[in-house]
Design a protein that fits this description.
By secondary structure, this protein is an alpha/beta fold. Helix content is 35%, strand content 18%. The chain contains seven helices and eight strands. The strands form two sheets. A four-stranded mixed β-sheet has the order 1-3-4-2. A four-stranded parallel β-sheet has the order 7-6-5-8, with helices on both faces. Strand 3 and strand 4 form a beta hairpin. The radius of gyration is 18 Å and the shape is globular.
């Protein structure tokens, strides 16, 4: 579930694997409007669906409609996977390991480095947690709305040196020049939004 979801490759990937391994399941995408998340979740609960993945922009808002979430999702403050069992909805987050593991596989150095992250939504929270667990030294959240991003930064400022800046500012250019790692957690540039992008060459 998400809004939009037409760009997602998940149905193709999962349905290919279900067929390959003879699993009796089907993966479909549902475009759930942000003001109808509660109804969407209640529908999922009662339709006998095994679970759902959650994408932009529902990863944070969905939490209040779940029965429980695991410790990783609590730390991140966002859910991207929901398992439904006996009518109960259990939330998890796999984004942090999904982000970090490929970097570690490529021997990207994270410990004591500086990361600039574009955006401050649910995916950003997972990236921040993953980087903190790997010993990142500094994080800069570069965003269009610094006041909103500061709320996210406040959740982590006891764990890491984390700053917020407007990505149209001169300050952002200075942070970018010092960055060891640049991460785009915004929907800008993805399919369906391909003509818009953050202000980075």
């Amino acid at each position: 579930i998400g809004h939009p979801v037409s760009q997602s490759f998940s149905p193709k990937i999962h349905n290919y694997l279900f067929e390959k391994y003879d699993i009796d399941a089907v993966y479909v995408s549902y475009d759930v409007n942000p003001d109808r998340v509660k109804e969407g979740i209640e529908g999922i609960r009662h339709l006998g669906i095994m679970g759902t993945n959650v994408t932009i922009p529902h990863k944070v808002n969905i939490i209040k409609y779940l029965d429980s979430i695991d410790d990783n999702a609590k730390l991140i403050g966002a859910v991207n996977t929901v398992h439904i069992k006996d009518g109960k909805l259990y939330g998890y987050n796999t984004d942090a390991i999904g982000f970090i593991n490929p970097l570690l596989k490529e021997n990207v150095e994270i410990k004591d480095k500086t990361a600039v992250i574009l955006g401050a939504g649910g995916a950003c929270r997972a990236v921040v947690c993953g980087l903190i667990k790997q010993g990142i030294k500094n994080i800069v959240l570069a965003v269009r709305n610094p006041a909103k991003a500061q709320l996210l930064a406040n959740d982590f400022n006891d764990l890491v040196d984390i700053k917020v800046c407007d990505w149209h500012s001169e300050e952002f250019k200075q942070y970018l020049a010092q960055a060891d790692l640049l991460v785009n957690t915004t929907p800008l540039g993805m399919e369906g939004n391909i003509d818009s992008k953050p202000p980075v060459d």
